[in-house]
């Protein structure tokens, strides 16, 4: 199994397909397996690189809290290990915050950026109302087992149409996500990293072509957050999916196909030998 190294942290990564590189940065508690619906779509045209964030899957566990900025250094270490000097960077949820920091701290490494279910953080972040069912669930989730929490979150994680007509997608997604669930301490570490993220004042420094993607039914990261990002990031495009919630990749299969088209439009022409998969 290939590993990248950032200081004392080992990061398990995998590569799929051939073409311009796309680095996938996973959400909270999510592993490479969590990208099960996305990887086959992107791998038709790209070399897709996915990794387990620190504290998850087969990567190192951390006894201490860490920041989104540290996770961004992890992501760059993965790029180094794969031999890719430049890549598109696609992050979802927590991973989209990491992707922001990669683009801000290492602009020379990012060809194009996709921010899914994302937020600027800080004072500009829109959060679920304290009295909402979603916020109540987040408080209770820590006392549940991983599979129980995943099923209890279904009304908040997936859109109404998916729950009514595409239960098979939900079953498959939960099966992948609970195959390697986060440990309680890891969940707390990553939740703390999300809570302390604040990029609002720096977003206008981003230079990479950016696509902001959000489900209009997202109750965990309300879609107003996507509007903030699209307004602050120079020339960013915003794509709102009306029949999608936080897990828009499951609710709306067309989303990743559109993302692939966006990334292809912003892919530099490179020699064929650069497209070889590891």
Beta-strand residue percentage: 15-25%
Along the chain, the helix and strand elements come as EEEHEHEHEHHHHHHEHEHH
Q: Helix proportion of residues, in percent?
A: 25-40%
Sheet with the most strands, sense and barrel status: 8 strands, mixed
Model regions low in confidence, pLDDT < 50 over at least 5 residues: 270-278
Second-tier CATH architecture: 3-Layer(aba) Sandwich
Which outline best applies? globular
- What is the number of domains? 1
Mean pLDDT: 92
Report the radius of gyration as a whole number of Å.
Answer: 17 Å
Chart the SSEs and their pairings:
Elements: E1 3-6, E2 9-16, E3 21-25, H1 39-42, E4 47-51, H2 68-82, E5 87-92, H3 94-105, E6 110-116, H4 133-141, H5 146-152, H6 154-157, H7 160-165, H8 167-177, H9 184-196, E7 210-215, H10 224-232, E8 237-241, H11 248-251, H12 254-265
Parallel strand pairs: 3-4, 3-5, 5-6, 6-7, 7-8
Antiparallel strand pairs: 1-2, 2-4
Helix pairs in contact: 2-3
Description:
With 278 residues, the protein is α/β, with parallel strands linked by helices. The protein has one domain: 3-Layer(aba) Sandwich (Rossmann fold). The chain contains 12 helices and 8 strands. It has helices at residues 39-42, 68-82, 94-105, 133-141, 146-152, 154-157, 160-165, 167-177, 184-196, 224-232, 248-251, 254-265; strands spanning 3-6, 9-16, 21-25, 47-51, 87-92, 110-116, 210-215, 237-241. Strands 1-2-4-3-5-6-7-8 form an 8-stranded mixed beta sheet, with helices on both faces. It is globular and about 45 Å long.
């Amino acid at each position: 199994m290939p590993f990248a190294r950032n200081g004392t942290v080992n990061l398990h990564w995998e590569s799929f397909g051939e073409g311009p590189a796309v680095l996938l940065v996973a959400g909270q508690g999510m592993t490479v397996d969590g990208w099960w619906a996305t990887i086959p779509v992107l791998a038709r045209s790209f070399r897709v690189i996915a990794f387990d964030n620190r504290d998850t899957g087969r990567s190192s566990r951390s006894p201490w809290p860490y920041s989104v900025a540290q996770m961004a250094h992890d992501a760059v270490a993965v790029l180094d290990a794969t031999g890719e000097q430049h890549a598109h960077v696609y992050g979802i949820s927590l991973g989209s915050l990491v992707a922001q920091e990669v683009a801000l701290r290492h602009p020379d490494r990012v060809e194009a950026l996709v921010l899914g279910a994302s937020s600027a953080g800080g004072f500009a972040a829109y959060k679920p109302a304290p009295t909402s069912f979603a916020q109540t669930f987040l408080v209770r989730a820590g006392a549940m087992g991983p599979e129980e929490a995943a099923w209890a979150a279904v009304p908040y994680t997936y859109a109404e149409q998916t729950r009514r007509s595409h239960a098979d997608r939900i079953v498959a997604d939960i099966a992948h996500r609970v195959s390697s669930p986060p440990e309680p301490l890891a969940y707390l570490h990553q939740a703390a990293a999300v809570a302390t993220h604040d990029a609002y004042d720096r977003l206008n420094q981003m230079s990479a072509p950016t696509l902001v993607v959000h489900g209009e039914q997202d109750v965990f990261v309300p879609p107003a957050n996507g509007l903030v990002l699209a307004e602050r990031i120079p020339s960013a495009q915003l794509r709102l999916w009306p029949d999608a919630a936080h897990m828009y990749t499951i609710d709306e299969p067309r989303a990743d196909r559109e993302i692939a088209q966006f990334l292809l439009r912003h892919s530099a022409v490179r020699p064929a030998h650069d497209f070889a998969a590891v």
